[in-house]
Design a protein that fits this description.
The complex is a heterodimer of chains A (177) and B (159). Chain A has 177 residues and is of the alpha+beta class. Chain A contains four helices and eleven strands, in the order βββαβββαβββαββα. Chain A has a single domain, classed as CheA-289, Domain 4 (OB fold (Dihydrolipoamide Acetyltransferase, E2P), Beta Barrel), CATH 2.40.50.180. Chain A is elongated and about 70 Å long. Chain B is built from four helices and eleven strands; from the N terminus they run H-E-E-E-E-E-H-E-E-E-E-E-E-H-H. The longest helix of chain B has 16 residues. In chain B, strand 4 and strand 5 form a beta hairpin. The chains are: A alpha+beta (177), B alpha+beta (159).
Chain lengths: 177, 159
C-alpha cells in the first residue's frame, strides 16, 4: 500500500511592520516601505509651502535634488481630527512624506487579510489590507495610496506655478537693482 | 401534507430590529454570535461601523437599521453573520440585531418589481407578513459605488 507523501507545512510568511499613530488612530506600514523616519522639526527648514486647489492635506514640499517630496498630513488624509504631526515617514518609491503623530512599535505580521469587499470607497486605495495583532485589528496602509495620480498632477502643476512666480520675482528684483 | 407542499417550505431566520420583525433565508446565515468588540478605523463607506474578529476572520459590521427603520439603533443583542455575494465571491458580513431570533419554516412569496430592492420576498408567520431581506442589497459593495456613480452622471446626461 502506498501512502500519500506528507505535505510539508510551509512556514508562515512574515513581514516586518511599523505600527504608528495618526490623530490617535493606530495604523501599520511595511517597514520595507519606509526609507527614512525624521522628526517633523528637522524638516521645517528645508520644506517650502505649496498650495494646490482642493488638496488641503499637502501644504509643504521638500526638494531633494531633482525630486520633490510632498508632505501629506496623515490626519487630513484619513479625515481624522487635525493633529500636529511630530514625525515624518519618507516613503520608498513614492513622492510622499507622511506626517504622523509617532511610532508605536515595530513588530511582525504573519497574516494580511484583504480588505473586505464591503469597504468599497477610497479606503481600497488607502489600505493593503487588515491584520490582527494581539486581538486588535490594524489597517495596513498602502504607501502609494496617499497621493493619487490626479493629485500628483495637481501638485506638480502647483509646483511649476510656484517656481515660475519665484523666477519672475527674481527677475523683477534683479531688474530693479 | 403532500410532498409537493412540503417542498415549498423553506427555512428562515426571524430576527428583530427595533420594533420590526424581518427574515433572512437560513442558507445565507453562517452563525449568530454575541456582540464583541468592534474595531474602527478610517474609511469612507457609509453604513459600515468597523470590523469584528470571528474565528480568526475579520468580518465587517454593517448597520442596516437606519436604512430599514429610518433611525440608528445603538443597542444590539446579536450579530447575525451572513454570507454576502459579490459577484462570484462570497464573504461574511455581520449585521447587528436587537432581539431574539427564531428559526422557522415558511413559504416565501417572491418580491415584485414595485418592492424595494432590499426585499427578496415575503412570508407569513403568526399572522404577520414579514419581509425577507436581500442582504446583497442592504449591505455595501462595489455595485453600490457603480450605482452611485451612474446616479451622479445621470443629471449631466439630460439635455
Amino acid at each position: 500500500m502506498r501512502l500519500a507523501t506528507p505535505v510539508k507545512a510551509s512556514p508562515a510568511k512574515t513581514e516586518q511592520i511599523i505600527l504608528f499613530r495618526v490623530s490617535g488612530q493606530l495604523f501599520a506600514i511595511s517597514s520595507a516601505s519606509v526609507q527614512e523616519v525624521r522628526s517633523a522639526n528637522s524638516m521645517s527648514g528645508g520644506a517650502a509651502e505649496i498650495s494646490a486647489p482642493g488638496l488641503r492635506k499637502v501644504r509643504h514640499v521638500l526638494r531633494r535634488g531633482d525630486r520633490s517630496l510632498f508632505i501629506v498630513n496623515g490626519a487630513m488624509h484619513f479625515g481624522l481630527h487635525a493633529a500636529e504631526g511630530a514625525q515624518l515617514f519618507v516613503l520608498r518609491k513614492t513622492r510622499t512624506a507622511l506626517l504622523i503623530d509617532g511610532i508605536e512599535k515595530m513588530t511582525t505580521m504573519t497574516r494580511l487579510q484583504a480588505l473586505p469587499l464591503s469597504f468599497c470607497h477610497e479606503e481600497r486605495q488607502w489600505y493593503r489590507g487588515l491584520t490582527a495583532l494581539d486581538q486588535t485589528v490594524v489597517p495596513v496602509v498602502h504607501p502609494e495610496g496617499f497621493l493619487s495620480h490626479e493629485e500628483l498632477t495637481l501638485l506638480d502643476a502647483a509646483l511649476l506655478q510656484a517656481d515660475k512666480t519665484e523666477s519672475e520675482n527674481l527677475e523683477r528684483t534683479s531688474a530693479a537693482q | 401534507m403532500t410532498v409537493s407542499t412540503e417542498l415549498e417550505l423553506r427555512s428562515f431566520l426571524l430576527l428583530r430590529l427595533g420594533e420590526r420583525r424581518l427574515a433572512v433565508s437560513s442558507n445565507q446565515i453562517a452563525e449568530l454570535v454575541a456582540p464583541s468588540r468592534v474595531f474602527r478605523f478610517p474609511h469612507r463607506t457609509p453604513k459600515l461601523e468597523g470590523v469584528i474578529l470571528r474565528r480568526g476572520r475579520i468580518v465587517p459590521v454593517c448597520d442596516v437599521s437606519e436604512m430599514l427603520l429610518g433611525k440608528r439603533l445603538t443597542s444590539r443583542r446579536f450579530y447575525l453573520i451572513a454570507v454576502r455575494n459579490y459577484g462570484a465571491q462570497r464573504e461574511w458580513v455581520a449585521v447587528p440585531v436587537t432581539g431574539e431570533c427564531e428559526l422557522i419554516k415558511a413559504e416565501m412569496m417572491a418580491a415584485v418589481e414595485s418592492d424595494a430592492p432590499h426585499v427578496a420576498g415575503w412570508l407569513s408567520h403568526d399572522g404577520d407578513v414579514i419581509e425577507v431581506l436581500n442582504l446583497d442589497a442592504i449591505t455595501p459593495g462595489p455595485e453600490h459605488v457603480l450605482a452611485e456613480a451612474a446616479a451622479r452622471k445621470r443629471p449631466e446626461a439630460q439635455p
